[in-house]
Write a structure and sequence with these properties.
single chain, 64 residues, alpha+beta, Ribosomal Protein L30, Chain: A, three-stranded antiparallel sheet, 3 strands, Ribosomal_uL30_ferredoxin-like, Ribosomal_uL30_bac-type, ribonucleoprotein
Length: 64
């Protein structure tokens, strides 16, 4: 049976330097910590909420 789980790939486009600790922690929660690094995650409401908190630091690259 094929894997039907949806995923979302995000890329870090902004620096966490001089950002609040909460935003830095959210980036780490997304698996990002350096510029232009990409992370593929399960497409869940929790992950989508984390992405919405950081629209100036991350962008969605791919939704599968």
């Amino acid at each position: 049976m094929a894997n039907t789980e949806k995923t979302v790939t995000v890329e870090q486009i902004g620096s966490p330097l001089r950002r609040p600790k909460e935003q830095q922690a959210t980036l780490i929660g997304l698996g990002l910590n350096k510029m232009h690094r990409r992370s593929t995650l399960k497409d869940t409401p929790e992950v989508r909420g984390m992405i919405r908190k950081l629209p100036h630091l991350v962008r969605i690259v791919d939704e599968a």
